[in-house]
Amino acid sequence: MASRQSTPEPEVATSGRWTGSTPAVSGAPSVAESLDDVDGDEDGSGKPKLKRVKSSFGGKTLGYWASCCLNLNNCMGPAMVLLPLVAQQAGWFTPTLALLIVFVFSTFAASMLCEAMQRIPGNHSFSAVPRIEFTTAVRHYYGRRAYFVFQILYTVSLQALNIASMIISAQVVDNFIVKIFGHNYALDYSSWTIVTGCSQYPSFQQDICLEDSNIFPVSSVISLGFLVSMIICLPFGYLNLDDNMWFQWFSLVGLLVFTLEFVVQFMLNMVPSSKYYIPPGPDPDIPGLNRTGLGPELLPVFSIGGQGYVFGLATFAYSYIVTIPSWVNEKKPTVSVNKAVWVPATVGLVMKLAIGLMGGMSFYLVGEGGKPLPGADNILIQLLHPRMPNITQYSAYLWNLTTLIPGIPVLGIYVRYNLLSGKVFGPVLSAFVGVVAPWIVTMFLYEQSVLLTVCNWIALVAAGFTNFVVPALLYHRALTWYPSTEERGSRSLRSRSNLSDSDNSAEILENARLIQNDAVSLADSHECFGAEKRVNALPNWVSVKSKKRLAAGITGFFTLLSLATIACYIYGVVALGSTD
Prior knowledge:
This protein is mostly helical. It is 58% helix and 5% strand. The protein has a three-stranded antiparallel sheet with strand order 2-1-3, with no helix packed on it. A three-stranded antiparallel sheet has the order 5-4-6. The chain has a two-stranded antiparallel ribbon with strand order 7-8.
C-alpha cells in the first residue's frame, strides 16, 4: 500500500492570532501562500510575519439594518430608469420574467461568493490578515495569472461604471442649477474662458435643455455641476466603508421617498379625471402618432420586436455582486449573510417592477414601428416635463442626486480595498487610483460623448462575467478544495458503496482516509470562531454534486447571456445606428 506522509499545518493569521488550518485538497494554497503577503522569519520564531493594513480598512461594525441599507443602495442602479421603455417595447411578461430569473441567480451568486470566501482557511470569520477581497479570492483559487487579468478587469469595469455615474450626476446637477437659477456656468478649457449654459439661448426651453445632455455651446468645459459633484464625493472616497454609512442612509431615504412619489404620479397619470391624464387621439407634438390612452393597455403581454435588450438590461439591473465582499468583511459577526443579501434584493425587485410596469403604463414612450420617442430611454426625463407638478420635477432631480452621487465614493472605496488587499499599491496610490483618477479623466471628457460610449462598452463586456460567472466559478472550486465534514462524509460513503466490490477498493479507501485525516474540518472549525455563522448559499440537504451543477449552470447561463447581450448591442449599433 502506498504510504503518505501527513502534511504540516501552515499557520494563517485571523483576528490578530495564529491558528492552524490546512487546505482540504492537496495543492490548495493557504491564505498567506495565495496572497504572497509573508515577510519571512523576521523574529526568529519560525513563524512568518504578516503585515497589517488595519487602518486602511473599516471595522466589523455594520449591523443588519446597515447591511440591508448598503446592499439595497448597491443593487438599485441607473438601469431602473430604462425599465418602462423596455416594458412598452417587449410587453410586461418577458421583462418581469427576466428580472425574476436574474434576481434569483444573482442573489445565489452573492451568497456563493461569500461562502467561497469563508471556506478559505483562516477566513471563517471574514477577518483574515491580509484581508480577503473579491480579487484576492480569485488569486487564492485560480492563481496569479488569473488574478492579474481579473484585477485589471475588475478595476477597469468598476471605474467605467463610476465614470458613467459621474457624467450623469454632473449633468443632473448642471440641469438642477438651470432649473433653479435659469442659467449655469462652466470653464471652457480650450480657450480658458467662462461660458454660460442655456440662459444665453432665449429660444431654448428648459425641457429641451433637460433632454440635451450638453447644455453648453461647447463640449470642452468643466462645469459648475461637475465641480459640485466632485467636491461632495472626493472626501467620502477617502473614508472607509463603515464611515460612509450616514451618507448611505441619506441615499436610502431619498431612494424610498422619491420612488414612492413617482409611483403616486404614475397612478395619477392613469386616472382619466386627473389633469395629468393624456387622452387618446392624435399626438400634437409628433405627427402621425395616435395615442391609445394611458393605462394597462399601453403594455402588451408580449411583443417580439422589443426582446433584444430584455435579459441584458435585467443583468445590468443586478450587476452589484462585486460589491458584496467589501461589505461582508465589515459586517458584524451576528449578521446573517443570507438575510442581509436576500431581503434587500427582494425589496429592490419590487421597486424595479413597480417603476418598470407602472412607468410603462403612465407615459407614451414608443412611437410608430416600436421606435422609442425622444427621451423615452430615461423615465426621469418624462417626470421632468413641465406639465408634471413641481414636486415631481424636483423629486426626479433629487432622486438622481440621492442615488447616484452617494454611490460614486462607494465604488471608489471598493477599488481601493481590492488594490490594497492584493498589495498592488500602497494606501496613497490605491486611494488615488480608486478615488481621484476617475474624476481627472471625467473632468476633461465628461461632455464628450465618446467617453460615455467607451464606459458603456467596458461595462457591457465585463459586467456579466465579473458579477455572475466569476462568483460561481469560485464557489465551484471552494466546494472541491474545502469540503465540510458532512460533505466529506457523504462522499466517503458513496465511494465505499461504489468501490466495495473492486479488487483494489481497500487501498483506495485507505488512501482516501489518509487524505481526509489531513484535510481541514471546516464544519468543526465553525464552532470556534465566535458569533459568525456558517454561510450556506444552498441548504445543507442539497448534495455537493447538485451545488456544483447549479454553479456550472449559472456560469453557462450568464456566459451565453453576456455574449448574446454584446451581439444585440452590436446589432443595434450597426443596424440601427444607435449606441443608446
